[in-house]
Amino acid sequence: MPDRKNEIVLHGIAGSPGICIGKAYLMDREGVDVVPKYTLGKGQLEAEKKRFKTAVKKAIDELHQIIADTPEELRENAKILETHVVLLKDKMLYGRTIETMEDELINAEWALRKVVLSIKPLFEGMGDGYLRDRAEDVVNVSDRVMKHLTGAEEVSIGAITKRVILVAPDLSPAETSQIQLERIMGFVTDRGGKASHTSIIARSLEIPAVLGLEQATRIIRNDDIIVLDGNAGVVVINPSEETLAEAEARKSLYEERRAQYARSGHLPAKTRDGIDLAVMGNIELPEEVVAVKDRGGDGIGLYRTEFQYMARRDFPGEEELFESYRDVVDLMPDKPVTIRTLDINGDKAVAYISDPEENPVLGLRAIRYCLHKPEVFLTQLRAILRAANHGKVRLLVPMISRIEEILEVKRLMAKAADSLKQDGLPHQKKVPLGAMIEVPSAAIMADTLAPEVDFFSIGTNDLIQYTMAIDRGNRDVAYLYNPLNPAVLRLLKMIVDAAAAHDKPVFMCGEMAGEPIYVPILLGLGLKELSANPQSIPMVKNAIRQLDVDQTRTFVERLLKQTSTEQIERMVQKIYGDLLNNGNHHDWGR
């Protein structure tokens, strides 16, 4: 038996795939959280406000300098730093801090801390994981101001001179924008999730990352040897010789296969029995289109549009939205671009003026919010119909739960087209309309929704969450979040059958579509198009090329007869594990 008694194994969130082995480098954050509190005399208020404004200006100047100095390979990710500049000027943070100083006669540090503590829960209570993780952006920008107020020293990733694995409570966008690829092998953080900025950066740079470990900075010491497995979401501290050897072998296999997939990424996704499928990319920013094209994506299967609505005082105007949508469409000539309408949590996600909903995951979000605010929705629909005049645009509506919502969307689309005609603006009167199936009621009623739309796109992230009645972010019930649960597979089958009866295609844009091991099931169910994060495209296309659709149909018929997740997992691993695992499976002593 290998001697692994001195190893410590930490399980977290697989933020970015890949395996690396090296020394830990702890990011020292001392001083940032030490916030003084004192009361001001009336005559001290103006000087204190000036001190706060000076700190904010220094923070803004720093961000502008970091943006200017960002290396070319990270330039597309520096966009979020511009959002941080906006945050620093916004009434939400800047204005409220000054108001708090005036109302309570307290010092700038304490006023800023108080405002941040009131804002964070608004983000953290949001149902959408991407928006929920934006709470860290508020913390990052306030930390930058706080450093200037308290005199704490700035952490500089750019100053690191050795090849290391970064270990930190979290990594801000400003910090990640200073990364030198030849120095940083991977990230390990206490906080963050799959939709956090750290995770997005790591995936775009193809650097392994494990996030949300909670105690990593307390347990790991500087220069500890660690194995970081971004495929399994695991960090091994003080690995044994046997563990190191296994990790090296799996790292070599993973990198060899990744290089092989990258070389074949532009080949068609055609099955062994001659069936062509489309493999598309999911994006949040127009700049990510380049990554989709570079990896052989057949179009944009999901363009999340929330980013333009965040960190601002008001809603974006039609021209601003139109220009962003047109940029994406122009970069994808003759290929589909699927624009998802606003999936956001009510006014507070934009103006931060409301009290948080008690249960935002089940609240006024996505299409419910858009129909509640038709003037906001019509602005976006007009921008989308105008962008459609430049290419192949499809419109996807999130969180549909009943047919009345689809009918109202169609009415508002017609109204938007009529108003554009009256204004003399070039546009498409109609675009293919899709319903995002991510609520069980929509899956159950898919046979009545199908005649009213042009396609379905399945969002597995929320569909699994709602079907299993779990919070995806809750570690205690995370084990229930599994695409191979028989209830989930039966719902998928129900959706596909209902669409087929009306000759409507079914696509998938959830995380399940980006995992090669699930591809045989999706092919066997009859999906026509898969959309995943850009880095997954070559692997998914490679999986498709190794499969026979008739065989996958027979396999799915067998799976649907199983009654437990464990039975299904064993069958998938037995039949397709060796073919599609990409060297990722390892239990790391669980």
Annotation field: number of helices: 23
Looking at CATH, the homologous superfamily of the largest domain is Phosphoenolpyruvate-binding domains
**Beta-strand share of residues:** 5-15%
- The end-to-end span amounts to 16 Å
Q: Could you name the ranges where pLDDT drops below 50 across 5 or more consecutive residues? A: 29-33, 346-354
- Calculate Rg over CA atoms: 25 Å
> What is the quaternary state of this protein?
single chain
Strand order of the largest sheet: 1-8-7-3-4-5-6-2
Describe this entry's structure for a reader.
This protein has 590 residues and is of the alpha/beta class. The chain has 4 domains: 8-29 and 156-240, 3-Layer(bba) Sandwich (Glucose Oxidase, domain 1), CATH 3.50.30; 42-150, Enzyme I, Chain A, domain 2 (Orthogonal Bundle), CATH 1.10.274; 304-431, Phosphoenolpyruvate-binding domains (TIM Barrel, Alpha-Beta Barrel); 435-583, Phosphoenolpyruvate-binding domains (TIM Barrel, Alpha-Beta Barrel). The protein has helices spanning 45-69, 79-89, 91-104, 108-124, 129-132, 135-150, 173-176, 197-205, 216-219, 241-263, 289-294, 318-331, 367-372, 374-387, 403-423, 440-444, 446-449, 460-468, 486-501, 519-525, 537-545, 549-559, 565-580, and strands spanning 8-11, 13-16, 19-26, 164-168, 184-189, 209-211, 225-229, 234-237, 269-270, 276-283, 300-303, 336-340, 392-397, 433-437, 455-458, 506-508, 529-532. The strands form 2 sheets. It has an 8-stranded mixed β-sheet. Strands 10-11-12-13-14-15-16-17 form an 8-stranded parallel beta barrel, surrounded by 4 helices. Helix 1 (45-69) packs antiparallel against helix 3 and helix 2 (79-89) crosses helix 6. The chain is globular. The two termini are 16 Å apart. Residues 29-33 and 346-354 have low confidence and may be disordered.
